[in-house]
Each structure stands twice: as structure tokens, then as C-alpha cells.
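Internal tracking record. Fields below are filled automatically when a chain is submitted to the structure queue. Please do not edit lines marked as system-generated. If the sequence contains nonstandard residues, flag them in the REMARKS field before resubmitting.
Queue: standard
Priority: normal
Entity type: single polypeptide chain
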Amino acid sequence: MRLSGLLLVWLAAVWPQAAWSAPAVAEPSVRTGTTEVHDNDAPSATVESRREAPADAPRSHGGNLRLPGVPAGFNTYDGGWIKFVYHPSIRERVQPLIADAAAARTALTEWVGQPVLSEVRVVVARTPGEMATLAPVNAPYPDYAAGVAYPEIGLVLLTVKPVHPNAQHDLAEVFRHELAHVALEDAVTGRPIPRWFNEGFAVMASGETSFPRIGTLWQATVSDNLLTLSQLERTFPSDEDEAGIAYAEAADVVRFLVRREEKHRFRGLISRLRDGETMDNALFNSYGEQTATLESEWREDVAKRYTFWPVLFSGSLIWAGTLGLFAVGWRKRRRKAAATLARWEREEAAEDEARRRLALRADPSAPSPRVHIVLAPTQSDDAPPAVPPPMLQRLPEVEVPKVEHDGQWHTLH
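SYSTEM-GENERATED OUTPUT FOLLOWS
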């Protein structure tokens, strides 16, 4: 009962804070923004989501991006469909990317259901500052980006060192994330797609595991602060620190669409987007349900995974908790009973000793208990001792004196 009471008190203290406070926004492991490559856009301009590309995968609507040349002093690795460009001093950091490239391409091809990534160049810089100098001309990207992809020209830029000192920076994870942007661009042949879908696919395909993103989605779920897909499709938040929920939702919605039993439907969705269908029509024709219905099913799935109420008050958990509390109580009670019996025995022995001492004090003239000393009989001095043969001679047995006390015999030492 005490344990149940403490649990209810804790829930009462935590629930209002989770339900009514605005969720804390945590930065994702692969940081992205909202800018595009435009010549005349103001920095604060809002771009409609269907035409908006992720900040780490900018798109030039003029189609005049050019692949930069290989910097002087850099090595190159030609893997056929993919080429790596890097400084010799970071060769050991680039080798794992080279080894992972083929498996990443195979996985992306399986996700989208068609061949992708026919020609890709990956340029690995030593520092974020060096990465900025390796970007195509007139193709800027956010300063906070740990990696950037230019799908139109098949270019991926990476940096070995993180943007911020001591920040979490998984180079292989960033590589797979940016490669996913290029693969999706290839799969839909450059057709405009919602940014939430583009970012969600990159996060899912790269295998990113961001605990801050999971925490953001959990807080948004329990506080009923999730955004609708229509909100995400109309406009994607332009400030990254305010877009934690949007990024978390985008990754989880795509995960829901690509669950194991629906992979063939997801491939059909990519194919229809490639043919020019809108996202709503492509979802309906691939999954047989309206976007609103799919969103409702996703919300139910999120509620099961990110809220504790269904688990806490499920019948199986209640019975398991009841049995556990009963076992703990029975064990404590058994220990308490054993301790009580031992205490009673000690108290009874002390009382008996006290009675005996009181009896001696009350009658000092009472005779002391008689002690009988019995000596063992010995042979006569006149009788010659019998001496056995040497081989059979035994040591004489000496009888130890004994005394009788209170009806019992005791050996004297």
C-alpha cells in the first residue's frame, strides 16, 4: 500500500507539469534548418513547404549548380558509383565511410524500390570552416549544419570535427543521412515533396537514434501538443530550436509508413510521387486510406508507445504488481516473525536466570548442591602388575575423576 501511495503521489506531481508546460525542445543529432538557395529571398522569408527543401539538402531552382573541383593536396578514392575526396591526414576517419557506402546504397535502394545513387561525390573536410570553402559557389547552407547534400549534382559535404566543441557528432550517421537526401531526390526525379517527408526519410534511413528527439516526441504526446500533418505540410517551422516537435514527428510518421508489413506500399508511394502525384493522392492510392485516417492511426500508435497510462493501468500489470507486493509483504512478515521468536527466547532465558539469582538471595542458608567425587579403583600394591608381551603391550588406562552435580556426572579436567 505504501508503494502504491508513493506511485500515485509521483504521478500527481509529474502529470500536471507534463500536461500543461510547453515541451522543451532538444536539438536533433543531425541538425537541419529551413533555408533554400534563392538569390532574392530575404533571410526571414517563409517558403511554402511543398517547394521547400531541407537546409542540409539545398536546391537551386535555376539549375546552375556546378560540381567543385578536387582541392589541391586532397586524395581521391574511386568506388565506381561513389567517389570520396579527403585530406590524407583524415584517411583513417574516411575508411569506415568507404566500407559502409555499398551497404547504405543497398538499403536505400530497398527502401525506395528502384535503383538510386548512380553517381555521388563525398567530400570530407577536416573542420566546419574548411567544409564551407568546399561548397559550390552561391550555394550556402546553415552554419550549424554538420553535413550537407546537394542532390541536384550528387554532392555530399561532411566535416570530421563537430560544429560545436564537445558536441555529439557521429560521422557515419551524418553520412547516411545526407546520402538518403540524394537517394530520395533520385527516386522522385526531383519532384517537389513535403519537407517533413524528406527529413523524416533521411532520419529513418540513416538509423539515427536521438534520445532528445524521443523525449521531445514523448512530451508532445502526453501534453497533447502534436502538430497535424496539414500544419507540417503548409509550413515547416523556420527556427530549428522551435521545430523540435516537427522533426520528431516527421521521423516517426515516416517510420510508421515504412513499417515492415507496409514496405511494398511505401515503394508504391515513392513511385507515384515520381509520376507527379500529390502527397495526398499518392498516400491514398498506396495505402487505401485518406491522409487524415493514416494520421489518426499514427497518433494511436504514438500514444501506445509514448504514454504510460495504458501500460500503467493494464490488467496484466495490475495483477503482476499485486502479486509482487504480496510476495514482498509475505517475505517481510516472515522475517519479522523469526526476529520476534528469537527475541522471546532471549527474554525467557534472561527471566529464568533472574529467578534463580533471586532465589539464592532470599535464602542464603540453603545448602549448596552436593558434589560427589568418585575416584577410580586402583590395583593392590602387593599384586604384581601383569606385563603383556612387548608386541601386545597396551598403555594403562587411567580413570578420569568425575563429580556428580544436580543429578548429572561431570568429568574433572
